Amino acid sequence: MAETMVISMSDLYICDLQGDVFRSYADEGYDMEAFTRWYLNMDPDRPDWSTVDALPRRSDDAGYDADAAEWIGFAYSYLVMRTGKTGDDLLRLAPFDWMLKIYHSVSNLVEERAVEVLMDMLSEREGSVG
Fold first, then answer.
1. DSSP-assigned letter for residue 46
2. Residues 9-52: pLDDT tens digits?
3. Closest Cα partner for 71 from 100, 91, 44?
4. Using CA atoms, how far apart are residues 3 and 91, in angstroms rounded to an integer?
5. Whose C-alpha in 33, 36, 47, 110 is 20 to 30 A from the C-alpha of 68?
6. Domain locations along the chain
7. For the CA atoms of 127, 67, 32, 90, what is the dihedral angle to 10 degrees?
């Protein structure tokens, strides 16, 4: 089981902001798998938002569930803070499509519990992926 740890209100605010960013780009029609790879590999100290326009847009009308995209963005931020893993680590262990598949089974949990479940799942995946 993952170690229980509570993050600060300012950290939760950062997670919420990242969730809002993911929702916004999902609403704008971006391919969220490509956006996630781009975003999680961006240098947080020197973000270059000028390259985001080059990312692909979805070609289908179905789109992504903006609620799912927001939750996934929040979860990635929370996982970085709780695990110390890099964006590259998270992309390897929990790519956007995998997070989308587990969204409905985990997103209804309280944030701290959802992240504990995700951390346990990532530990299992790390053994099989890594």
1. S
2. 888 899 999 999 999 999 998 999 999 999 999 887 887 888 88
3. 100
4. 22
5. 47
6. 9-129
7. -20
The pair of three-digit structure tokens given for residue 115, joined into one six-digit string: 């992240």
- What pTM was estimated for this model as a whole? 0.85
Cβ contact 120:4 at 8 Å: no
What are the beta bridge partners of residue 67?
A: none
Residue reference for tokens 């950062």: 14
CA 40, CA 35: separation in Å to the nearest integer? 8
Question: How many angstroms separate the CA atoms of 14 and 9, rounded?
Answer: 9
DSSP sequence for 66-99: HHHHHHHHHHHHHHHHHH---HHHHHHHS-HHHH
Q: How far apart are CA 29 and CA 77, in angstroms?
A: 22
